[in-house]
Specification:
Chain A has about 400 residues and is an alpha+beta fold. Chain A has nine helices and 15 strands. Chain A starts with 15 loop residues before the first helix and ends with a helix. Chain B is built from 29 helices and 49 strands. Among the domains of chain B are: about 25 residues, no CATH class; about 180 residues, Dna-directed Rna Polymerase Ii 140kd Polypeptide, Chain: B, domain 3; about 70 residues, Hypothetical Protein Ta0175, Chain: A, domain 2, CATH 3.90.1070; about 160 residues, DNA-directed RNA polymerase, subunit 2, domain 6 (Dna-directed Rna Polymerase Ii 140kd Polypeptide, Chain: B, Domain 6); about 130 residues, RNA polymerase II, Rpb2 subunit, wall domain (OB fold (Dihydrolipoamide Acetyltransferase, E2P), Beta Barrel); about 90 residues, RNA polymerase alpha subunit dimerisation domain (DCoH-like), CATH 3.90.1800.10. Classes of the chains: A alpha+beta (about 400), B alpha+beta (about 1000). Chain B: Keywords: DNA-directed RNA polymerase, Metal-binding, Nucleotidyltransferase, Transcription, Transferase, Zinc.
């Protein structure tokens, strides 16, 4: 363990009162898809619980049942089905229920989609029969035609079968298509005028556009019906609402005394993230971009070779005693000149959403699930204690 | 042969090939026989006509032997080996070592002098001149003296011929016939490559030369010849192999025709040539040879097996490599190490890494990338040219000339002498392989087929620079407009193909740096094109092979052939018996420059995976891997497996015709359960897109029962039910094609066609999606294979400060003992490539350093050594050690558990022992073997042991007479038991023993041994 990072465990049991008093949140980056914030006053296991819930336990909608009516492309059915399953369904999962094994598909638990290629309109426009038999095989060297997820259209449960049921509401997002946009490309469902109205309504469930599904040649056809259901990331990654969710401890980089001359230069050069800079006038090394540090420890290793005659005795084997006496800090790497620490209670938390939820909403969802879990655990414990007391 | 000059596909454009349903990347070079692709493996052999001198073991009577495998280059004469030997000590009163000659058809060795005399040499002096070219060479003269003395008794040619004739097969013949016989042996069978007929003077010269070489070796003036020198080896490719076979078959046709015509003549019938010439002989036998790989013309000759093999279609690189494979047919069991070892002369010709492990190690080889096998040039043309260059033919050579002039050898055989060899060398250098050995006074020219050659840059010796210039490279680069090609470089004298022998006479610089030092230590005449060209197809895919322990490269070369990828672009149209296609193959981030030419970027066989090398949870111990469940969910290493099964309406004996149809249970016997046939369509063939499981019938087929069988069956039925009239006679037998019981899938393609004999044939391709699961095998490109030990949930995986989680976690213990440094360098370079979006160059012998890669990593904000601080995904805390994480190209190997799983509760048993059968395909059991048994014994679990060995295996009940202990007669239906010997009907016990035990007892009894079971009541 001489060359590895020194990582100590944070001490003491979790104190709710203290924690709630101390928790501070600062937003760093906030877009629809991604949110990064600084969190102070919690510990790593707690944040990890949230991270794990985000990845595996926040439900979302994804295509699960695929009925392939026609597929004359080179891509086989299973392959295509797998690709369709991974397309993010842009519908608010909170508006749906889980569909259990024997549940009847309904607008409460299922979103129906349809992919037809070439689209019905296109076939009509070309004045060819809907069976497409006379489309024929390609006669000349022709490029393949890409089929994007834009061709997947919502097929609502018809009004007659699900009269009066609520319409699922898609999340209103910045890059969402306007009604006209959908109209221009949404020629799929012609057979029912009403349906088309539904499809163009702002309530329509959609699928992330712009994803290449397969490529076809003229004459090859696709007709696929899909059902998206609610699920959890722990069952399949397609239900995971986050591309990734992670955190890092806030790094602290401290110089031990004044460093200048060649040592300063070498240190500055050693850092892959350019944490250090030289002061213009004096040429003294300073820590300029502390937050960039990735805790690689390169700055502590690079100069070690040059300190001859010194052994590792100055290195910290644990984070308990601290040269600078900073609270909640553990030294990860240390050398003659530099000390790299982790602030154990300050984190940068990043959530990258896939698209079903807004990134900031996801964090709240995760917290809710964690709370539910806690409540469940508490109830179970209390239930147990009650039963024991009654026995007494 | 596909893509040959006679192939339909020859010279077609990419688009034309695509329209024909062919893959434009297919290289051809194989044959299609009976619908399967057959490669003719190049066969290695020793070159003909050259003289080799070998030392014999110290126990042999001869100390040295000069050999010459003499073959006439035209006609169909078999090879004759002439041997000139020298004894260890004196023989028959001679004090010195004696030279003996072994002649074909002659039983014993003949003294050299007698052979010389038989060839027409009069005096000892003449003989001396044939052997020793320098009259002042007293040492050699002394050595030869005793040999010449041996011939002193035989004073003239006829005596000599008679001496030889007596030792031939002419027992009891007259002297004249003996002499004629001996002369014929010398003229027709001895050294046939010199000539067949009155070529005695030339043969005498050649025999003299053989003796000279022998004596020179004995005197230590030249080294013993090296059997494994690659310059002595010739490779027979498809052309020479087929030529040889055709030649033999043609002779057979002629012979047969002659025989039939002779018979027609003898019987006085009208001559019918059309009947005599059997047109099918050649076609059928060629087909047979290519289809089976048994390379022989007639069934009597010795078989050469494995010449033709089914082309490996698992990966594109595997196919390419298969087409460049060599086989040395020398003794497989022979534990001789030398022929298996890598020889210096194989540099640049044969891949040093790609060879199988085990039995065929070093005997099966692969050509290096630029190696080329020469196509022969007719000897007559070359000879004529040599004569035009004032070469003196061998039969006109006189003793005076030979001392001063240079001997000229063509393809190993001595053809003449030349006074000014330098002129010859300069004139011929660029045309053919030419070796001028000044010390020996020999000029050796090679023009025969099967020499391994390789191209080299020619260095201008005056300026010590390459003849090739930038302008040539530029022209070559845009070959489409300039029409410049590699063969033009050869024609213009910028690049030259050298064979192994000629290569030894030139000075080759390794690179430009070397070349710059030309003149300091050596003057270079050639330069390597690139040192990485020493590798073959499979080894060229390995990144940084020069940083690996060499066996690891060998392992990878073998493993690359098992990887899944895209083996051809037209796989959707092909009906391969077995094929794997990866869903998302990626071109590797870390490449070699050769990959472009091997199409590895276009048809890849692997995926760039983020690999962390760490101990994490322990599920990657002993070469297993932890893989990310999320990555697998998202399509990592998913693949399809295609399997094609075939069914044909065969014609059985007595004109019984099988029919493909939906079997009718009313008239068919031996049918499976009704639902097995439910997926068949009305024509008896399963439809496309049908989900199939084990036991489903794919093609329904019935055969008529023989007339007798039908009658027996009808009678049986009548007896059983008495309703024969109602049910009708069952006249057909079910012989449908059924899906293997452990397999599942979807029918992907159905092909109905006509077989060779006009029979209806159905091929059905079944597609199965293979999702990676625990137990599947994966490997990086460094001989680091492992099985998946755990599919770890995404949230449990460690993550770095950027939220990146590894796809694969490999165990660090896999690295130190195997010394696959290149694996680590690849990871590092892969990381740089992933960050910067460029391809990394990992070609062998290029000066890429780890430091340089590290510097590049730092530029992208990463640790230069690839270490990263990871957070434990389960605890959320940072891990105690920095973890090495990078991007490696991983391959998924065929060997998937899905195809290997097999278990049973009960099932088929063997007929003899009634123990469960073995093997997955038969639905067999899993054996508790010797060592497994020991576990139960050691644990003391006797009940388990008894259960496994008896109850669950072959339990059997026998009834034993309590008096004699032998097995008694038991009539269970009437419940009567009897031991006739003891007249005992009451004291009989039922005993449970294994059936195998009962069998043993009965076998012993058949040998008059009475095994008695003495029973004792144990009570309760």
């Amino acid at each position: 363990m001489k060359n590895g990072p020194v990582v100590a465990r944070e001490s003491g049991p979790f104190n709710f009162a203290e924690a709630s008093r101390n928790i501070q949140v600062r937003r760093v980056l906030h877009t629809v898809d991604e949110v990064t914030f600084e969190l102070y006053g919690v510990n790593a296991p707690f944040l990890n619980a949230l991270r794990r819930i985000l990845i595996a336990e926040v439900p979302s909608m994804a295509i699960e049942y695929v009925t392939i009516n026609e597929n004359s492309t080179v891509m086989n059915d299973e392959f295509l089905a797998h690709r369709l399953g991974l397309v993010p369904v842009l519908a608010d999962p909170r508006l749906y229920q889980f569909r259990k094994e024997h549940d009847v598909p309904s607008s409460q638990n299922t979103i129906r989609f349809r992919l037809r290629f070439p689209s019905v309109n296109k076939l009509l426009r070309q004045g060819r029969s809907r069976t497409g038999e006379d489309l024929g095989a390609p006669t000349a060297h022709c490029p393949s035609i890409p089929v994007y997820s834009d061709n997947i259209f919502w097929e609502p449960f018809s009004a007659t079968t699900n009269a009066g049921t609520f319409a699922p509401v898609a999340l209103n997002m910045d890059q969402s298509h306007s009604a006209e946009e959908i109209n221009t490309c949404g020629e799929a469902v012609l057979k029912d005028r009403r349906m088309q109205e539904d499809a163009s309504s702002p309530n329509a469930a959609r699928v992330q556009p712009g994803i290449l599904l397969t490529k076809v040649l003229p004459g090859q056809r696709l007709d696929i019906a899909m059902e998206a259901v609610k699920g959890l990331g722990q069952d399949h990654a397609k239900w995971s609402p986050v591309a990734t969710a992670y955190y890092r401890m806030t790094p602290k980089v401290r110089l031990k005394g004044e460093v200048n001359g060649p040592a300063a230069k070498a240190l500055r050069e050693s850092c892959p993230m350019r944490v250090f800079e030289l002061e213009e006038t004096s040429g003294v090394l300073k820590v300029a971009h502390e937050s960039r540090c990735t805790l690689c420890g390169e700055c502590t290793r690079r100069l070690q070779e040059k300190i001859i005659g010194e052994d590792d005795s100055h290195r910290k084997e644990s984070g308990s005693e601290d040269l600078f006496e900073e609270p909640n800090c553990q030294t990860v790497y240390e050398s003659h000149h530099v000390k790299v620490c982790n602030e154990t209670k300050r984190f940068m938390f990043t959530i990258e959403s896939v698209g079903q939820y807004r990134a900031d909403v996801l964090f709240g969802e995760a917290l809710m699930i964690l709370r539910e879990k806690c409540v469940y655990l508490l109830e179970s414990l209390q239930g147990d204690s009650e039963s024991t007391t009654t026995r007494e | 042969m596909l893509h040959s000059d006679f192939c339909h596909l020859n010279g077609l454009t990419e688009y034309q090939l695509q329209n024909m349903g062919e893959c434009p990347y297919d290289q051809g070079g194989y044959f299609i026989i009976n619908g399967s692709e057959k490669v003719l493996i190049a066969q290695e052999r020793m070159g003909n006509n050259a003289v080799y001198v070998f030392r014999r073991a110290s126990t042999a009577p001869y100390s040295h032997v000069a050999e010459c495998r003499s073959v006439l280059d035209r006609g169909n004469k078999p090879a004759r080996t002439a041997q000139v030997k020298i004894t260890r000590g004196g023989v028959k009163g001679q004090s010195g070592q004696c030279v003996m000659v072994s002649l074909p058809y002659i039983r014993s060795d003949i003294p050299l002098a007698i052979v010389f005399r038989a060839l027409g040499l009069e005096s000892d002096r003449e003989m001396m001149e044939r052997v020793i070219y320098d009259p002042k060479d007293e040492e050699m003269q002394t050595l030869l003296m005793s040999s010449l003395d041996m011939g002193s008794v035989i004073t003239d040619q006829n005596l000599a011929l008679d001496f030889i004739g007596k030792r031939g097969n002419s027992v009891g013949a007259t002297r004249d016939r003996r002499i004629r016989y001996a002369r014929e042996v010398l003229q027709l069978e001895f050294l046939p490559h010199i000539g067949i007929g009155a070529y005695e003077p030339a043969k005498a010269w050649f025999l003299g030369y053989m003796t000279h070489q022998l004596l020179a070796t004995v005197l230590g003036r030249r080294e013993e010849d090296d059997r494994d020198h690659y310059g002595l080896k010739r490779l027979d490719l498809a052309g020479p192999l087929l030529t040889g076979l055709f030649r033999q078959l043609f002779q057979k046709v002629v012979k047969d025709a002659r025989m039939i015509l002779q018979r027609q003549l003898d019987t006085g019938k009208e001559l019918n040539i059309a009947l005599a010439v059997k047109s099918r002989t050649i076609t059928d036998n060629l087909k047979y040879a290519i289809a089976t790989g048994n390379w022989r013309a007639d069934r009597k000759a010795a078989v050469r097996t494995g010449v033709s093999q089914v082309l490996n279609r698992l990966t594109y690189a595997a196919s390419l490599s298969h087409l460049r494979r060599l086989n040395s047919p020398i003794g497989r069991e022979g534990k001789l190490a030398k022929p298996r070892q890598l020889h210096n002369t194989q540099w640049g010709m044969i891949c040093p890494a790609e060879t199988p492990e085990g039995q065929a190690c070093g005997l099966v080889k692969n050509l290096a990338l630029m190696a080329y096998i020469s196509v022969g040039t007719p000897v007559a043309d070359i000879l004529e040219m040599l004569y035009n260059f004032e070469m003196e033919p061998l039969y006109e050579v006189t003793a005076e000339q030979i001392t001063r002039q240079t001997k000229v050898f063509l393809n190993g055989s001595w053809v003449g002498i030349h006074p000014r060899p330098e002129e010859l060398v300069t004139a011929l250098r660029m045309l053919l392989s030419i070796v001028f050995d000044i010390s020996q006074g020999e000029l050796r020219i090679g023009t025969d087929a099967g020499r391994v050659c390789r191209p080299l840059f020619i260095v201008d010796t005056e300026t010590s620079t390459l003849r090739i210039r930038k302008q040539h490279i530029d022209q070559l680069r845009d070959y489409e407009t300039t029409d410049y090609s590699f063969s033009r470089l050869v024609r213009e004298g910028l690049v030259e193909y050298l064979d192994v022998n000629e290569e030894e006479t030139v000075m080759i610089a390794m690179d430009q740096e070397h070349l710059a030092t030309s003149g300091e230590h050596a003057i270079y005449t050639h330069m390597e094109i690139h040192p990485s060209m020493i590798f073959g197809v499979c080894a060229s895919i390995i990144p940084f092979p020069d940083h690996n322990q060499s066996p690891r490269n060998t392992y990878q070369a073998a493993m690359g052939k098992q990887a899944m990828g895209m083996y051809l672009t037209n796989y959707n149209l092909r009906m391969d018996t077995m094929a794997h296609v990866l869903y998302y193959p990626q071109k590797p981030l870390v490449t070699t420059r050769v990959m472009e030419h091997l199409q590895f970027r276009t048809l890849p066989a692997g995926i760039n995976a983020v690999v962390a090398i760490a101990c994490y949870s322990g599920y990657n111990q002993e070469d297993s891997l932890i893989m990310s469940q999320a990555a697998v969910d998202r399509g990592l290493f998913r693949s399809v497996y295609y399997k094609t099964v075939k069914e044909e309406e065969q014609k059985k004996l007595f004109g019984q015709q099988e029919v493909i149809n939906k079997p009718d249970s009313a008239i068919t016997i031996g049918m499976k359960e009704a639902h097995a046939y439910s997926k068949l369509e009305s024509d008896g063939i399963i439809g496309v897109g049908e989900r199939v499981r084990g036991g489903d019938v794919l093609v329904g087929k019935t055969a008529p029962l023989g007339a007798t069988r039908a009658a027996v069956d009808a009678a049986e039925q009548e007896a059983a039910s008495g309703m024969a009239a109602l049910s009708g006679i069952r006249s057909r037998k079910d012989c449908s094609l059924v899906m293997k019981r452990t397999e599942r899938g979807v029918t992907d393609k159905v092909l109905v066609c006509t077989g060779e004999a006009g029979t209806r044939m159905v091929k059905i391709r079944i597609r199965t999606e293979l999702i990676p699961q625990v137990g599947d095998k994966f490997a990086s490109r460094h001989g680091q294979k492992g099985t998946m030990g755990l599919c770890m949930p995404e949230e449990d995986l460690p993550f770095n400060v950027d939220g990146i989680r590894p796809d694969i976690i490999m165990n660090p213990h896999a690295v130190p003992s195997r010394m696959t440094i290149a694996h680590l360098i690849e990871a590092l370079l892969g990381k740089v490539c992933a960050l910067s979006g460029v391809e990394g160059d990992a070609t062998a012998f290029t000066p890429v350093t780890v430091d340089a890669i590290g510097r590049e990593l730092v530029r992208h904000g990463y640790d230069p050594r690839g270490w990263e601080l990871l957070f434990n995904g389960q605890t959320g805390r940072p891990m105690n050690a920095a973890i090495f994480m990078g991007v490696n190209y991983y391959q998924r190997l065929r060997h998937v558990v899905y195809q290997k799983l097999g278990a049973r509760a009960r099932g088929a048993v063997q007929v003899l022992t009634r123990q469960p059968v073995e093997g997955k395909s038969r639905g067999g059991g899993l054996r508790i073997g010797e060592m497994e048994k020991d576990v139960f014994v050691a644990y003391g679990a006797s009940a388990v042991l008894k259960e496994r060995m008896c109850d669950v295996s072959d339990k059997y009940r026998v009834h034993v007479c309590e008096i004699c202990g032998l097995i008694a007669i038991a009539d269970l239906r009437r419940a009567t038991f009897e031991c006739r010997g003891c007249k005992n009907k009451t004291q009989i016990a039922a005993v449970e023993i294994p059936y195998a035990c009962k069998l043993l007892f009965q076998e012993l009894m058949s040998m008059a041994i009475a095994p008695r079971m003495i029973l004792k009541d144990l009570g309760d």
